[in-house]
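Job type: complex structure
Entries:
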Amino acid sequence: MKKNKPKYKQIIDAAVEVIAENGYHSSQVSKIAKKAGVADGTIYLYFKNKEDILVSLFQNKMGQFIEKIEQETTSRQNAEEKLLTLIETHFEQLSLDHHLAIVTQLELRQSNKELRLKINDVLKRYLAVIDQIVAEGVEENLFRKQLDARLVRQMIFGTLDETVTNWVMKDQRYNLTSQAKEVHSMIVHGLST
Amino acid sequence: MKKNKPKYKQIIDAAVEVIAENGYHSSQVSKIAKKAGVADGTIYLYFKNKEDILVSLFQNKMGQFIEKIEQETTSRQNAEEKLLTLIETHFEQLSLDHHLAIVTQLELRQSNKELRLKINDVLKRYLAVIDQIVAEGVEENLFRKQLDARLVRQMIFGTLDETVTNWVMKDQRYNLTSQAKEVHSMIVHGLST
Amino acid sequence: MKKNKPKYKQIIDAAVEVIAENGYHSSQVSKIAKKAGVADGTIYLYFKNKEDILVSLFQNKMGQFIEKIEQETTSRQNAEEKLLTLIETHFEQLSLDHHLAIVTQLELRQSNKELRLKINDVLKRYLAVIDQIVAEGVEENLFRKQLDARLVRQMIFGTLDETVTNWVMKDQRYNLTSQAKEVHSMIVHGLST
Amino acid sequence: MKKNKPKYKQIIDAAVEVIAENGYHSSQVSKIAKKAGVADGTIYLYFKNKEDILVSLFQNKMGQFIEKIEQETTSRQNAEEKLLTLIETHFEQLSLDHHLAIVTQLELRQSNKELRLKINDVLKRYLAVIDQIVAEGVEENLFRKQLDARLVRQMIFGTLDETVTNWVMKDQRYNLTSQAKEVHSMIVHGLST
DNA sequence: TATGAATGAGTATTCATTCAT
DNA sequence: GATGAATGAATACTCATTCAT
């Protein structure tokens, strides 16, 4: 399995760095190879083409990202706490990896529609977690019954995403994680019975 | 003033059409020129370069978009109604111009960071309208005092933007405007005292 | 009509020179452009791609080649003289353009099967001239009736082609045209009643 | 002697198959190695480089081809019969090995000039057989004295080669061997006293 | 103003060959 | 002898922009 070989991870990590530092359109394959410490041709032993590096990067990093959120939230008692944990974990993880934050919030969005569709596939797992928490909240009688699942999902994800993007565009100059509580408060109010 | 000459508008309208139909990366200057019925070189009499077409396009279209929202909202009595009007007008306008919706929600986001910063500048006027309504809501004692203006702005804009993007990505197959009321409800709940 | 613009011919002539001097596989588009005195991109205003340069080259040069042979042969009185004229004109023309001889006999044969099929199309006009002369020879009772047209065509073209190729491979060190008479003699004998 | 080890022949046979099936330019060393059932690197224990595979292939297969022709022709009584046998054996052998026919008539000609010069070396043995038969024909007073040996050789080889190439390009759809008699007739006529 | 022919910089990918095991 | 992972050189084509007319 190629994904477990050390060079696979080396190349993905190099890609994150190179893209964060140079921007999507100035990230040539040769630059990524150099940063990864391999020959240009070696890239193609592990990835089908340049786009495959980006998709794999997103799947790999986002996979870990979502897994962490799944882990943290399941241990909580109720929907309200779970939602807070989700927001905090979301913010925390991106705060801890500045390069990744730049890549996911800014650079990867410059990719073409096709790549963005693949990225959306990966995000579905995240949206499922949100749906699950909201459903629990409804059962716990914390949230209103009549909520439209899609709209709720869009509000939560849209708010978090916009918040992180603004923070990245302001060069990550303020503390993102500390905003989790207030974002949580607004969302819970918005959904409450 | 070049902006009032007919070819200026011709070129911008051609750009919207071409980008909506072909996607950002397949929208060459020559294609836009052809659709606009002018020679390639003529483009450069009206715009500094290709990026300038896109920025101008966004300024022009978004200017009208925001103006309309300003007009509609000022005539309303209170913050709650103004917010509903803002959401409805936002959704309505993009529903009425499918090409523009594709361009603003999907294609223009593939531009580089620099262009996106300029786009953000244009959006400031829109965010100012949101801020103003929220401030009124606080004064009217409808919304909580301690709200962080930036976070509120991000929640509102993030939610609307995510909602519209999802609708565009689903090929605009359902009615967007009819979702305004529920989105409004969630946001107002989220901010209420 | 692009084919009549001066740059079209410039590029084709440059291609013949570059290919004759460097060989098919070392004839980069940029080298041809440089020799033609135009920018790389200009090539693509006149030709669809690299292969199109080669096909056009062959069509253009071979077109003239065959036309000349058609002209010279029609003025002759009988099949025997026509055949001699054909052979002489064939040899003469390639003797007069050493670069073209190298390109048609050696370099262009390295192209892929697809290109070679297109080249064969061009040759059909030449083979038709041969067929016509042979048919006349049969009518004049100079040649045997039972001859298989295809085999005759293959003998004549095969002999001429092999003769020219050998002369080119021997670096054109001897006089090709002076061999026309003897080749003619062998062929006429071969077909005679 | 490497040439007698089993892998040597394995690789050459694999090369013929791969080239016949995929064409010269799609016949990568790794594909040949796979078909031969050896590792890529193993190829280089038996051949100096890729070109060496092709030259060896031609030497090996053509060696057998010419040997067979030498055997068959020597047993015949006179030049006329020998020439017929040569033509028949030439056609027969290529008819019996369709892959080899494709490789020698079409694919190997796409190689560069250098390789073709080496291929010509191998052919000298074949041309010597032709020369010998023609000389015998002259002695037997069957053929004219004044014939130029090189031109005769070119006529015979050119005719046979063109005939086989046409048959291969027509996808070997008709019987090649049955054309031997008429080809023979034309050539003998062409050389006769 | 308007034209459109000409420019030329910039880059992903393949594949013959090597060499440590 | 045998392997196969790693190497890295080499090149056609696009398209934003210019400028002579």
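Summary: DSSP finds nine helices and no strands in chain D. Chain D has a mean pLDDT of 94.
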